[in-house]
Design a protein that fits this description.
CATH topology: Triger factor/SurA peptide-binding fold
Number of strands: 5
Largest sheet: 3 strands, antiparallel
Shape: globular
CATH class: Mainly Alpha
Helix content: over 70%
Strand content: 5-15%
Radius of gyration: 22 Å
Distance between the termini: 60 Å
């Protein structure tokens, strides 16, 4: 009888280990693992890689147009750091806008701005050509982000504040922890 319990215990342990392994594999495969924490909000690898791809494509298009060249390694680290900084700044922006408008009204305002921008066929074609990413990524990481910054700038102007000064204040008081090797957070931003 004790042999059956030992066998059952081993069987259950193997099942638990297999389930945990599958969950970890899925997290890595679908980039659902955190790369940092900002004010209690997790930053995920999926968004980081999407932002990096967008930044790289944007820079690539601009550098081809201007015939500029840069050290590939330096460029990669600079764009990766900028992508992380954008994610961190977005936490500050979202928090402020949700306080000012509420989550539902903010979502509506951003969706309206996305729809307005996306209805401009020339702008849509230019963004698709320039950024070389899916339409949903252009909307999420380019147009929506621009809309949030425009809304924030408007709100801060009403309060008699400057966007850049406000962002500096947020960065100086932020609690940020990054899990990516080679990147650290300082009050001045992400350093390599």
């Amino acid at each position: 009888m004790t042999h059956i319990f030992k066998t059952k215990g081993v069987f259950i342990a193997v099942i638990v280990v297999a389930v945990v392994a599958l969950i970890l594999c899925a997290m890595v495969a679908f980039e659902w693992y955190p790369i940092g924490i900002v004010e209690g909000n997790l930053l995920f690898a999926r968004e980081y890689h999407a932002r990096y791809e967008l930044a790289y494509n944007y820079y690539d298009a601009l550098s081809k147009a201007s015939q500029a060249s840069a050290d590939e390694q330096d460029l990669e680290y600079t764009l990766r750091a900028a992508s992380i900084e954008a994610m961190i700044d977005d936490v500050f922006v979202a928090k402020k806008l949700e306080q000012d408008f509420g989550r539902k009204e903010l979502k509506t305002k951003i969706e309206q701005r996305i729809e307005e921008a996306w209805s401009d066929e020339q702008l849509r074609n230019d963004l698709q050509t320039l950024l070389k990413v899916s339409d949903s990524r252009i909307k999420s990481y380019f147009i929506a982000e621009q809309a949030r910054y425009e809304l924030l700038n408007g709100q801060l102007s009403l309060e008699g504040k400057n966007l850049f000064e406000w962002m500096d204040e947020q960065r100086k008081s932020a609690r940020v922890k990054l899990f990516l090797k080679g990147f650290t957070w300082t009050q001045d931003g992400v350093t390599i």
